[in-house]
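User: Hi! I have a protein structure encoded as tokens and I'd like to know what sequence might fold into it. I'm fairly new to this, so please keep things simple.
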């Protein structure tokens, strides 16, 4: 682990990961897995209708990161209970590969996005759709419909006020079209990505 990684790791909480659940059938035991910055803690509780098992005490095994990486038996058991995706993830943690961005708050991630100017770094519509979905509690159907026309990237960088105007004009044109009237001659405004005074739709944080 490099010096820079060590310094970054010092900013993380002691507990890096925790999960729990029952084993796959026919195994009915309950398991808990905790990863700290120094140890892997594996606990289990025997669940059985048999009277003889009622007084069985929970078990616990604690190993260092390196010991866990060398323990193929425990790795196999973790993989059987929680799946190979979780196993690969905790092995990466034990190797010092920490997911720093995933642990940041949404508000801080949004500030990072603003500084990085991701509108120039990624042109994937799927990416921007996920960004909008993550930043907002719910995405109205009319916003999703408008995004099909102008793109999710523009939705993200459009001010809320202007977005409401675009939706209102689009709704009015739809109603006029349904009534058989001619559409308005005025062209719709393009979403303004350079607005700095109004809060953008994509900057709305989850509450």
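Assistant: Happy to help. Inverse folding works backwards from shape to sequence: for each of the 207 positions I chose a residue that suits the local structure. Here it is:
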């Amino acid at each position: 682990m490099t010096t820079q990684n060590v310094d970054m790791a010092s900013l993380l909480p002691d507990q890096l990961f925790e999960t729990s659940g029952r084993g796959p059938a026919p195994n009915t035991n309950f398991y808990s897995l905790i990863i700290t910055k120094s140890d892997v803690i594996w606990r289990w509780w025997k669940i059985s209708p048999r009277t003889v098992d009622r007084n069985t005490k929970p078990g616990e095994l604690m190993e260092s990161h390196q010991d866990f990486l060398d323990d193929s038996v425990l790795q196999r058991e973790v993989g059987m209970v929680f799946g190979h995706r979780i196993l690969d993830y905790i092995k990466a943690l034990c190797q010092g590969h920490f997911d720093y961005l995933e642990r940041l708050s949404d508000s801080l991630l949004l500030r990072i996005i603003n500084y990085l100017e991701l509108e120039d770094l990624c042109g994937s519509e799927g990416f921007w759709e996920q960004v909008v979905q993550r930043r907002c509690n719910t995405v109205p159907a009319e916003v999703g419909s408008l995004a099909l026309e102008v793109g999710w990237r523009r939705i993200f960088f459009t001010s809320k006020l202007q977005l409401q105007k675009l939706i209102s004009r689009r709704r009015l044109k739809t109603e006029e079209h349904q009534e058989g009237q001619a559409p308005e001659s005025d062209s719709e405004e393009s979403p303004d990505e350079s607005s700095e005074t109004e809060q953008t739709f994509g900057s709305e944080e989850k509450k």
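A useful reference point when you look it over: The first strand starts at residue 15 and ends at 22. Feel free to ask if any position seems puzzling.
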